[in-house]
C-alpha cells in the first residue's frame, strides 16, 4: 500500500508529532512549487535538531501526506539529496531504497550529489556500487556522473575500465568535457603511463577542447614526480605558448621538483618569474625553496628565507622545520639539527617519519648513539617505525660500540609494539651480528697466536745462537 493509516506512524495530537506533520506539509508545498533550496534548508534544520529515529519518522510523515497535498516525487528526492549533502549515507541509502519500494526514483542531479559526497570521503567502492544500481534502475547518467565514475575507476586502479567509460561517453550522447580529459590524464600518471597522458592531452582538439591550467598542472606534477624535470619544464613553455597562465600551483610544483634534486638555482629562477608575474608566494613556495637550498647544505641562505616569512605574514610549518633539519643533517651537524627538532616540537609542529629517520641516521654517522636512541624512543612513542636500512644502521652501530644489550632491548621493544619494519628479519640480523663477532674473534685469536708463534721462534733462535757461541 502506498499510504499507511495514521496510527501506523504514530500520529497523535501532541505538539512534537504535530510539528513533524506541519513540516511535511511545508516540504510538499515548497517542492511542488520548485523551491528546492528552501525545502533542503528546512530539512537540514529538522535533522540537525532531531533524534536518531527522526529520519524514518520523517519519511513516513511525508509519505502519509503525499496525496493529500497533491505533491510530487521531488519531495523525496530533496530528502535523498539533503542526506547526501550532510554525508548521512545510511539515511540517504534508506530513502533511496524506500523511494524504489514506492515507485519513485531520484533525479540524476541528486544521484550526482550522493556520488560526490562518497568520493569526498574516498568511498570508491560504494560509488561504483551505486553507479551500477543507477544503471539497474535506468537512471540516466549525465556527463558529470560519468566524469566522477571515471575518477572512481582511476582511484580503484581500474584504469582500463575508466578508459572504456571515457570512450562510451560519445555513444551515450555526451561529448567529453575538459574535466573528463583531466581526470583520465591524472589516472594515466598514477599508473606511470606518461606517454598515454601526453597523447590524451594532444587529442583534446578533436572534441574542440584546449588544455587548461589544471591539465598542465597535472602533467607537470606527473613529470616532476617521476623526476623528469626537463619534460615538466617543457610543459611550462607549452602552456605559455598556448596563452594558459601558470598559477601558484604550477610554480610550486616545479620549484619543489627541482628542489628535490638539489637544483636550488633553477628553483630560484622560477621564484623570480613568479614575482615578475605578480604571483604571491605562499608557505609551500618558501618550503620548496628552503628544501632546495638545504639539500645542498646552503643552510645560511635558507635561514634568510625563513626570516622573509614574516614579511609575507607566513608561519613556518612542519615542512619548513623538516627542510631546515635536512640541511643540518646534510652538513652532519646533528647537534644543531636536534636543537631545531626540539624547537619544532615546541612550535606545535609534528615531525614525520622522514624527519626522524634523517636525525637518527645523522646521529649514527657521527657515532652519537645516545642521541639516536633518544630520537628513536620519541619515534616509538608516536607509534612510528624505522625503515629496515636505518634500523640496521642503528643496531650495527650499537653493537660496534659494545652496547649489544641495548641493541637487543631496542629490537624487543619494537617487536612488542609491532613496530619492526616489514621485511626486517630480527633473527637474521642477530645471527649476522654474531657471525661478525665470531669473525672478529677469529681474527683476534689468529693475531694473538701468530704473535705467540713469532715470540717462540725468536726465543728459540736466541737460545740456539747462544749455545753456538758457547
UniProtKB/TrEMBL annotation:
Q: Does the keyword Transport apply?
A: no
Classification via PROSITE patterns = PPR (PS51375)
Q: What is this protein called?
A: Pentatricopeptide repeat-containing protein
State the species of origin: Dipteronia dyeriana
Q: What is the lineage of its organism?
A: Eukaryota, Viridiplantae, Streptophyta, Embryophyta, Tracheophyta
Give one Pfam hit by family name: PPR_2
Instruction: Identify the Gene3D superfamilies for this entry.
Output: Tetratricopeptide repeat domain (1.25.40.10)
Question: Record's family?
Answer: Belongs to the PPR family. P subfamily.
* Renumbered ranges of PPR repeats: 72-106, 142-176, 177-211, 212-246, 247-281, 282-316, 317-351, 352-386, 387-421
Record's keyword terms, sorted:
Repeat
| Entries under InterPro entries matching the protein | PPR_rpt, TPR-like_helical_dom_sf
